[in-house]
Amino acid sequence: MAERDKQPSSETMASDEAGADFATTVERLEQLVERLESGELSLEGSLAAFEQGVRLTRDAQRRLDEAELRVRTLVEGPEGGVDFDSFSAPSEEEADSER
């Protein structure tokens, strides 16, 4: 049981989370939930999994917020209202030149 409770260092987890895409982050969250619900983890293991889940949730929310900002460009209208302009993705040439 001690083997299952071992968690990677927080530094390793942070670098893994930063490099993961949104779908991978959600998949990792689902795996954590399954482990927590299974009751297999010790108290310490459960707390570590919960902490990792909180970090993953915050990362996923940040990614969603960033995506929303990229998709919707908000422009203030003449009467102070908000008009939504469609987002146009950069062409592949523009994206390549930014890298």
What's the topology here?
Blueprint: H1 2-5, H2 10-19, H3 22-38, H4 43-71, E1 72-76, E2 82-86, H5 92-98
What does this molecule look like?
The protein has about 100 residues and is mainly alpha-helical. It has one domain (about 1-70): Helix Hairpins (Orthogonal Bundle), CATH 1.10.287. The chain is about 70% helix and about 10% strand. The protein has five helices and two strands; from the N terminus they run ααααββα. It has helices spanning about 1-5, 10-20, 20-40, 45-70, 90-99; strands spanning about 70-75, 80-85. A two-stranded antiparallel ribbon has the order 1-2. A hairpin with a 5-residue loop joins β1 and β2. α2 runs parallel beside α4 (about 45-70) and α3 (about 20-40) runs antiparallel to α4 (about 45-70). The longest helix is centred in the middle third of the chain and has 29 residues, at about 45-70. The chain is elongated, with a radius of gyration of 20 Å. The protein starts with a helix and ends with a helix. Mean pLDDT is about 75; it is low at about 1-10. Heterooligomer composed of large and small subunits. Belongs to the XseB family. Its main location: cytoplasm. Its EC number is 3.1.11.6. It catalyses: Exonucleolytic cleavage in either 5'- to 3'- or 3'- to 5'-direction to yield nucleoside 5'-phosphates.
